[in-house]
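My current task is to audit a protein record that another person submitted. My question to you is simply how this chain folds and whether the tokens agree. This is what I was given:
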Amino acid sequence: MTHSSSRRHRDDPSGPPSPAEAHPAASAYPWAGAARTPRDPGPAAGGTPSGATAAPRNSRAAAADWPLQVTAPGNPGWEQTATLWLRTLVPARYAGYPTLARHPVVLARHAQWQLQHEIGAVRAALRTSRAELPPLGVSDRIVESAILMYAAELEQLGRLARGVRLVTRALLTHAPEPYGRNG
């Protein structure tokens, strides 16, 4: 199949939408892609210094869900990378609140709540699409496309939520008092 024939118009009824069509915002979550192996470009590309790790090494599952943008706890600047990543998960209007800007643990908790509510909204949309969209004049093909989009988004939100839990745990473990357990 040639490149031009593999690209089809969104309204072409010849088959289901491609993953990019089903979830065009996937590029907004580059850390939530299918390839979940931690990669580090090295210090020359702004990565971690040689010898430093890009993800926690306590388990394969944790390493798979650790956000690629967040350097491992204990590395210089890791908390700043965690804060920058967490800020991408909350609505932009929260950027002006000093409490969230100054306290990464509070920001992480807010990101957890935000993701929990998004997951609930996507589950509701997924559950009701077949019943609620056709009466609005939406074709069966578009309903199925919406369902694929919601399923993809639910999977990505789940990965993000697992990443937030790992980052929160690391912030609590490595933070000074009063948040952390270590003194």
Summary: The two ends are 61 Å apart (CA to CA).
